[in-house]
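Weekly structure sync, notes
Attendees: PL (lead), two postdocs, one rotation student
Agenda item 3: pending single-chain targets
PL asked that the sequence for the first pending target be pasted directly into the notes so everyone works from the same version. It is reproduced below exactly as submitted, 168 residues in total.
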Amino acid sequence: MNFKDIFQNKQKIKNIIKLVTKENAEVCEDLEQEVYIKAFKNKDKYKESGKFSNWITTITYNVSRDYLKSAKKRYETQFEDENKIINIKDKSISLEAKMLQKERQTRISGAINSLNKKMRDVIIMSEIENLTYEEIARRLNCPVGTVKSRIYNAKKELYNILEDLIEE
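Predicted structure, written out during the meeting:
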């Protein structure tokens, strides 16, 4: 292996990087340099019995995939950091706002508790436990249509009870 072997495959290397990563020219150039560095560092691992173009292609694919994995990890980390910032509670919420919120929660809980048992059960499973219609139907051992009907009627009744809260 020598410089000539690598530079004969230069366009192939560029094309693979561009195809796999779909990145801009600057990033592709950086990855291309990384391919050359890895090839030179690992030149003693190249076996003359195989085709050089296959060996350099494998290195190129691996460098490109490693880049994509690290880019995904950077994105996930950035996303987690943004979520942490969003989820920081605002400590400046006034006492009045806290009391109003507590009052609303009490009224909503009371309204849910005032429903008959069948409607209360489906609302709790649907809205609080986030179960699907099918999961609720299995749990209650009834048809999905019955679950949908009960949820509809429960929401309609809750709307009538809490209409003044909804309009705020």
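Discussion points:
- The CA atoms of residues 73 and 79 lie 10 Å apart.
- The chain has a mean pLDDT of 81.
Action: rotation student to compare against the earlier draft before next sync.
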